[in-house]
Amino acid sequence: MGIPGYFSDQGIGVLDMSFSVLILTLNEETTLPACLNALQWCDDIVVLDSYSSDRTVEIARKFGARIYQRGFDSFAAQRNWGLSSISFKHEWVFHLDADEVFTDALLNEIRQTTPGTSYDAFHVPSKMMFLGKWLRFSGMYPTYQVRLTRRERFTFRQVGHGQKEDIDQLRIGTLREPYLHYSFSKGITDWFNRHNRYSSLEAEATLRNRKANIQDWKGLISANRPRRRRALKTLSLRLPFLPLIRFVYMYFLRLGFLDGSPGFVYSILLSFYEYMIVLKTHELEKAEESHHRNTLFEKGSK
Fold first, then answer.
1. Is the pTM for the entire model greater than 0.90?
2. What CATH fold (topology level) applies to the domain 20-181?
3. How is 76-136 classified by DSSP, letter by letter?
4. How many angstroms separate the most distant Cα atoms in the chain?
5. Can you tell me whether residue 12 is helix, strand or coil?
6. What are the residue ranges spanned by the domains of the chain?
7. Which residues pair with 162 in a beta bridge?
8. Residue 173 pairs with which residues in a beta bridge?
9. CA–CA separation, 61 vs 75, rounded Å?
10. pLDDT digits (tens, 9 = 90+) for 181-205
């Protein structure tokens, strides 16, 4: 038995599975060359750019990519627009960000995969790279996201700052080989700027979940890793001292200390990110309470 949805070449007819690649970009002149350089085997590279002001489009054109532009609203909306509005050469599309790098091992696995007509997409793991090191432990490896999709049978849904899939309604397989994620490739300041924006989105999602009292209890024991992780995340939103818990979990329970200095720094950064979400959620709650009091006061004074 293998991973559910994973097809090996033992006992199954192997097909040479071809696929297109869709890359989301916004001012990625420093990261895009490495991403595109690892895709020289691909005969259909599409860059969906959010009106970059640097050399991103020029670099993409130099590598022979097809270029489309659309103002960014969310990751899910960008990818869904690409799937519905762009004519891809192949039925299957792999989704990349400009700070991610495809590997030969992942390419070989996909080419030896026979998806079958019943599958709509595949989860793919990623390796978090930081300070020249793969964060094997503090990077929460393996963390899976849907990245390989059948273009006419799959749509993303925005949750917080990222996207997810309706796992109960789709048949999703799992690949073993990871792609590489260089989240800090544009420097620590860029990382803080991005996570400042992300924390605002996560705070809004946290407040919505609290008000709706959403908790996927069955998901806590689900065999599906992404569903189990999301259920745990939703439960964690109700825990006190969440930033401290995040650090202890990543650095000690997940053995992040084995990643050395990069593991310690990364665990600190993510606990700080968690603290930003906590602070912004509290701020939103206070703003709603103030608005509610003012509304009651105005109604009472009439």
1. no
2. Spore Coat Polysaccharide Biosynthesis Protein SpsA; Chain A (3.90.550)
3. HHHHHHHHHHS--SSSEEEEEETTEE--HHHHHHHHT----TT--EEEEEEEEEETTEE-T
4. 78
5. coil
6. 20-181, 188-300
7. 159
8. 122
9. 22
10. 999 999 999 999 999 999 999 999 8
